[in-house]
TrEMBL record:
The keyword Transmembrane does not apply. Pfam families: ABM. This is Antibiotic biosynthesis monooxygenase. Residues 2-96 form the ABM domain. GO terms for molecular function: monooxygenase activity. Keywords: Monooxygenase, Oxidoreductase. It comes from Thalassobaculum fulvum.
Length: 102
C-alpha cells in the first residue's frame, strides 16, 4: 500500500471556498487502476491559514506513479493554478509506503 498526501496552507477565511473546489472537481480517481481511497482532511488553524491534506491510498507506489503520468491526472489538475489566492505557498507532497497494516 502507498499513501500520497499533499499538505495545503489555506488562507484564513478561504476554507469554504477551498472545500468547494475539492467537492466539485472531476478527479476521475474511481477509474484509475490501483486507486483505493481518497480523503480531504482539515487540520489545525493558525493565525494566517488552516492546514489541509489530501490523502489518497493506492495499491502500490507503481499504481500511484502510473496515475501521475496519465491523462486522468492531467485532467484532474488542469485548473490547479487558477486558485492561487486560496493557498499560502505551494502544496507540499509526502509519500508513504506501508510497512505495517492491521
Amino acid at each position: 500500500m502507498f499513501i500520497a498526501m499533499n499538505r495545503f496552507r489555506v488562507a484564513q477565511g478561504r476554507e469554504a471556498e477551498f472545500e468547494t473546489v475539492w467537492r466539485e472537481r472531476d478527479t476521475q480517481l474511481d477509474t484509475v487502476p490501483g486507486f483505493q481511497a481518497f480523503h480531504l482532511l482539515r487540520g489545525p488553524a493558525a493565525e494566517d491559514h488552516t492546514l489541509y491534506s489530501s490523502h489518497t491510498v493506492w495499491e502500490s507506489r507503481a499504481a500511484f506513479e502510473d496515475w501521475t503520468r496519465s491523462e486522468a491526472f492531467r485532467a484532474a489538475h488542469r485548473n490547479a493554478g487558477s486558485h492561487k489566492g486560496l493557498y499560502l505557498g505551494h502544496p507540499q507532497f509526502e509519500g508513504f509506503e506501508a510497512v505495517l497494516a492491521l
